[in-house]
Amino acid sequence: MTTEQQPKPTLTLDQKVSLLFGAAFWATRAVESAGIPHVVLSDGPHGVRYQANGFDHLAIEDSLPSTCFPPAVAIGSSWNPALAARIGAAIAREAQALGVHVVLGPGVNIKRSALCGRNFEYYSEDPLLSGVLGAAHARAVQEGGVGACVKHFAANNQETERMRISAEVDERTLREIYLPAFERVVKEARPATVMSAYNQVNGVPASANRWLLTEVLRDEWGFEGAVVSDWGAVNNAVASIGAGLDLSMPGPSEANVQRVLAAVRAGELSEEQIDRAVARVLGLAALVPAAKAPAFDLDAHHALARDAAAECAVLLKNSGAVLPLARGQRIAVIGEFARTPRYQGGGSSHLNPTRVDVALDALQHQAAQHDCRIDFAPGFTLDGSGDPAVLRDAAVAAAKGAELALVFLGLGEQDESEGFDRTHIDLPAAQVEALLAVAAAAPRTVVVLANGGVLSLEGWHDQVDAIVEGFLLGQGGGSAIAELLFGLRTPSGRLAETIPLRLEDSPSFLNFPGEKGKVRYGEGVMVGYRWYETLGRAVRYPFGHGLSYTSFAQEALQVEATGRDTARLTLEVSNTGRFDGQHVVQVYVATSAGPVRRPLRELRAFDKIALRPGESRVLTFELDRRAFAYYDVDAHDWIVARGDYTIQIGENASSIVLESRIALEGDLIVIPLSMDSSVGDWMNHPVIGPALLQELGADLPPGALDKFHAQPGLLKMIESMPVLKALSFLISPAVEPTLQRLIKISLDTPC
Ligand code: GLC
Question: Pairing state of beta strands 643-650 and 656-664?
């Protein structure tokens, strides 16, 4: 039964309109007389931030203890939808125990720039990876009896001016890059709510954007839940309700209630529009259980947080196989982050964890099991206090006395957060100075990073032997890192975002964060690896990169077309090394088919599989039409162009190990021609092209076309000219009847 079909209690107009605005910071309005309960909504994407008193949306006030799972930046690196689902289910369990009915997550915005302060809360630069993980998370939350809230819809890809900036994005880029993750979550997880973003999209506020909230979200994607605003995002309540927003948060907002009542009375809004929004808000009441659920299992959820963290860390470099750590070593652990973990981001998602594992303690524990000795030196302070030289010298002394230095570096909450963007992607200078001094003193050096947004590794990458990119690993990250470093677990993370050599190389560099109220998405669909691979621009580590302690072989790729616009592929994956491990099979599609420029390749499927040493498995992937399609803004639809498509298996977006080409018939589409179409459009038309000169030759006096045969380059010279102008001038105005006849054929002939 959809929300529109649910029987509605008899309510006055005043009561109805009041339901469209929050009654409090985290709750909708109850109408006792009609048996309508409060619905409690709370953050966030990687755990429940429930505030029993003291309400705010920037985590200034405290919240009740809950499990801090790895934020999306880490889950994105796991490439494991089953893991995302396990975490979603656990979050639903905790929400029920805390009395929360809608959890405000997942966040699936695309990482357009590494500078975005909120990238820690998002999965990836790629829409497929973001959508699959977001849908798995949201579906599990919903199956747990709690409402999910996919956010921030849409094109909220920066924090700078986030409440005012207009994201200027062409429709094909929106459709192919910034909307697909939302589309997948809406279609596959059917979330109770979608959160409209703060920003404008092409000059229209997302929270009052009819094209987004009604035409795309509901008419095209079939969303039946409630659209809730970001907190404080509604500027014009009447316009928002008219565009398809249902619930404006936070509340209370009596002034807005009166404005909407006046608008209904003045005929600006119909009571039918009010009723439709009310039905959707009332639909959320179904999420309110008869009784509060029992407390959640803190230990089990902490164990899940730790297991998850171990799947997320990315082993970027491991020269000389310095990892896993050998037994019996003397190890200098350097860096305040080893003692003071950074494990989550700042702002509305910030949680009060049930406990936090400290890497230094976990390393000490593992060292005792491996006959290793640990000496610790902070090397630097997180707040810049202390004497850097003294701190550095102490770290160097520890390194000199060790066989290996383990250096924990990263970004503090003052460096990146919701609410502001970074201006560079470098580590703090004091940390780099300490690292270089330690690396010069230690026989071998391993770096462990804790950061929400991608960091540049330049200036020190070549001076160290191994790098583990942990991103932000949640409350269990300290133990997970220790177990990975000592080889109790094998790293299996893969980059969900490119690590560039220079920020200036990144696709959005010239258009971030915009100016004078607008940010132009000038790179179009060329976001992330789509940019670097299409331009052939070198990066430090590509999207999809990640090492293991074991090795894998991918062989025997077989691909077959299974229809005009679908295909099936199989391949065999083997663990050829000495350790248990997990491999991420990455399936890319490369093509130049169609009338638009395509990225060199795009991720179209993936799977993460666990294999023991010597074990092999054959995997099968079915590629549907969207794996081959581009969005055609003239046809207002997805089109699979006739042509060749290369299916590629990548170790990452840059290193292709297997590939096989297939030809697809593609969609039969009418390609309408006109007198203004160019000679090239006519020549490239699958039906009219071959006929053009023949038909003209038949209709014109002998010799009229000789010049074309005499000068084969002539066609090239005129191919971008309007056909009637070109041929009338070069041949004769007598060509017009023939062209008219051919135009009619083009309008009636799908090809
Ligand atoms: C914040 C965030 C949003 C969050 C909401 C409630 O400003 O943009 O993600 O869910 O407000 O805290």
Answer: antiparallel
